[in-house]
Amino acid sequence: MTLTAPAAVLPETAEPAPGRDHSAVWCAVSLTVAGAAGAVALVAADRAAEWGHGRPFELFWLGMLVFTLPAAYWAGRRATSSRLRLAVIVAYACFTYLPKLLRNPTGPLYHDEFAHWRQSREILLDGRLFEANPIVRVVGDFPGLHSAVASVASLTGISVWHAALAVLIGAHLLLVLGVTVLAQEIWRDGRTAAIAALAYGLNSSFLFFDTQFGYESLAIALWVWTLVALVRAMRAPAKAPIAVLLIAATVVTHHLTALGLIATMLIIAVAATIKRRDAVAATAWLLTLTAAVLTTSWLLWVAPKTAGYLDPYLAKALNQFAGMFSDNGESGRTLFKQSIAPWWEQKTAFVAQGCALAAMTAAAVHLYRTRNRDPLALAMLVLGVCYFPAVLLILTPSGAEGARRSWAFSYLGIALVVAPLAVRLLDRWAGKAAAALLTVFAIVMVGNTAAGMNPSYRFPGPPVYGSDTRALIPEVAAAADWLRATQGRGLRIVADRYSGLIFGSFGGQDPVTGSVTFPTYDVYLTQPGQPVNPALIGQLSAWRFGYLVVDRRMAREVPEIGIYFENNEPIAHNGRPGFTLGQLTKFDHTPWTIKIYDSGNIAIYRFDFASLNVPAIGGGK
């Protein structure tokens, strides 16, 4: 097998004569029934979690497996025709978007979804790209997703959220088809390609993270199709412009995916150089260099804030990782600590990693024994191996987020090199191998999803203070609506992380939640009767901040994710509230704050810095 092999007819089983084979009918009937039953079980799981009784985890996995296992059977079946296999893959892609769709069908829910919803809405309302985003400050510098969503909303007249769903469902479908096409480009076998697509769907980001309203959900599909274009350009250099176009689309959509693309292309280029050292390698290097130049140019001249945005996460993760070996592990994190996930989900999370390691080892041996000289196979093997070092970062609080994001990239390598081994096993042992592979498929799907997403992301439930998915309560939304209706939008306000999400998205305001260089949380931390740092007051006045939002729950409850404002906040996290009620009610008596709203938990104050001999400011930008 070589890169320059001509595009031959895929070694599929010949299409059966009309009227002699009813597999397509049986497949359609079985998957339709399974899909309906699975959807009912998923809805039942959500309702059980929301009402706080029943078995939501069991119902959820019953719903997922009742469809995905038959789909895997039909996709991997030797007698399945190419057209039927494609239909199964499309059905699989559509069904696997259902868990996230049912989780929040009417509006944003995850933390970053509020930022992307706001950015898309601002483009639709004002028609301007690259506007600053107060929730995630680099979002505005990568307008690929938001411009697409705003365009769909403008052309169709549907809401921003429903336009986002249309774009995201399309991206999810393109992602699955892209993995299928890429595997087919490498292995020249449709059956292997289908199994590779199903295997990629086992990665921990697939069901919830890469289906959310976030720029990575679109960018990951662009990444896969860029690799398809790269492989085709390596075989036919005249197709290189398509690869360049897709590289550019990835760069303007998401920073981490653009960096991941460069890394993946670099692996392919090095593998091509080792195996070939000819025009094929030259094309790979040329396109890799193009990706590096486009990404660097964008980060330097269009999105210069990105490095500062990413650096604290990486630096803190490395410090915590080093600290695990110098402080007896106190800087690390305990997996599934206080998790409500059932014991069998937690166990499968560890078993899944063992399955991945065993599968990769067997795939490496298989490639060695078959003397495979295709540089793409070697490149995917290297990419898959990168999955395992990232698993170690999951042991640090800051590194966990980066590890989860990396798995969507490295798991592609695992899927592509394990797929031909799975086909070989099916051909040799047929029924026994099919039963074993479907069992492993189920275990890895359950385990990786449990490792990648907390239950609060996957299931609805009662409001939980300090949760990235359950912190929204009607009281906060009502306060945000009141401020926008009475004072206007675009106001600069000081808020905590969770109020800031709602005021900054639905409320249309510009919140700040604090940072090392702008520690607005010191306003809250100052003890009653003590003066707030004059330098901070000067900053607030000079930057025209007009309002302060106080959530008094901070004095009564501990945030679920352990953050009140931002990751580096100087607040004790010892299982007790980080504030006293006096710290949060002192603004009722300070001369430079005027209460204009109070609903019990939420209070809004207008700053009056003139009382402190600070020049008066306006309420808006």
List the helices and strands and how they pair.
Blueprint: H1 23-51, H2 56-76, H3 82-95, H4 98-103, H5 111-126, H6 144-156, H7 160-187, H8 190-200, H9 215-235, H10 240-251, H11 255-275, H12 279-302, H13 306-323, H14 343-369, H15 375-385, H16 387-393, H17 399-452, H18 455-458, H19 474-487, E1 492-494, H20 497-504, E2 510-512, H21 521-525, H22 534-542, E3 547-551, H23 581-585, E4 593-598, E5 602-607
Parallel strand pairs: 1-2, 1-3
Antiparallel strand pairs: 3-5, 4-5
Keywords: Cell membrane, Glycosyltransferase, Membrane, Transferase, Transmembrane, Transmembrane helix
Subcellular location: Cell membrane
Transmembrane segments: 23-45, 57-76, 160-183, 190-209, 215-231, 243-274, 280-303, 376-395, 407-426, 433-453
